[in-house]
Specification:
TIM Barrel, single chain
């Protein structure tokens, strides 16, 4: 990756560390490289315990030991939950996190669009999830309009994921464009995530930008435009105000 690369947005809301065994960087690797890529805040969102290589549930509880600001980079304590066959997630009840994502993963055997839609609607309606991760995944088709209408009603963000062409979600691009176009029509809150599994990919939003361009999605709907906009969104979802991050980003010049 070029050392001169600059991310299109200063916040990356979807990254994985070695706590998920199929990822290859530590949280400090992300902190160290974030300024190089123009990232001022990122969310550490390792996989929930329902997949075989995920960390134990106490990993998420213990994220409180990670400083809010590390070497000039803000860190959000998060998780990417797995959707379970009963429409619940594997979010540990004791975890107190800044941001929670949820998506379909290999812990669940693909079924049919009606079943996928029903499960996703239940997850959204639970009130425990802030962002739907990679909803365009090809092997879990859904009624996208019904899902996005529900997400709008419950103020849950819809992710445009920038890794769908570099991993097992190949073939998702057209679904992502369709979802982004619906998000424009419905007026959804939109999140962008690199879904980086190595620190060198954080902030690399090229694929997401292609989706945004093809769908003509207005940038104003995307919360990654600034750390303050992300914090506003999280507070609107009922998360506690993170005073240290507010002070860090909004202190007078």
């Amino acid at each position: 990756m070029s050392e001169r690369y600059q991310a299109a947005f200063p916040v990356d809301l979807h990254t994985h560390t070695v706590a998920s065994d199929h990822a290859y960087s530590t949280i400090h690797d992300y902190i160290r490289l974030a300024p190089q890529f123009g990232i001022s805040m990122f969310a550490c969102t390792d996989h929930g315990p329902a997949v075989p290589d995920a960390p134990y549930p106490w990993h998420f509880k213990n994220l409180r030991v990670v400083p809010r600001v590390c070497e000039g980079v803000a860190v959000l304590r998060g998780m990417e939950c797995n959707i379970l066959e009963d429409g619940k997630t594997d979010l540990p009840p004791e975890a107190k996190l800044d941001v929670v994502l949820a998506g379909f993963h290999p812990n669940l055997t693909p079924s049919d669009p009606d079943t996928h839609t029903r499960l996703m609607l239940k997850v959204i309606e639970s009130g425990k999830i802030d962002i739907i991760s990679h909803p365009g995944v090809a092997n879990f088709p859904m009624d996208y309009e019904a899902v996005l209408e529900c997400a709008k009603q419950h103020s849950v963000a819809v992710e445009i994921n920038s890794s769908s062409s570099v991993n097992t979600r190949l073939g998702s691009h057209e679904n992502c464009v369709r979802i982004a176009a619906l998000a424009k029509k419905i007026g959804n809150i939109v999140s962008v995530g690199s879904d980086a599994h190595i620190a060198y990919f954080m902030g690399h939003f090229e694929e997401a930008l292609d989706v945004i361009k093809e769908s003509a999605l207005p940038l104003r709907q995307i919360i990654n435009l600034s750390p303050s906009k992300v914090l506003d969104f999280l507070e609107s979802r009922g998360h506690e105000r993170i005073g240290e991050l507010r002070d860090f980003f909004e202190k007078p010049a």
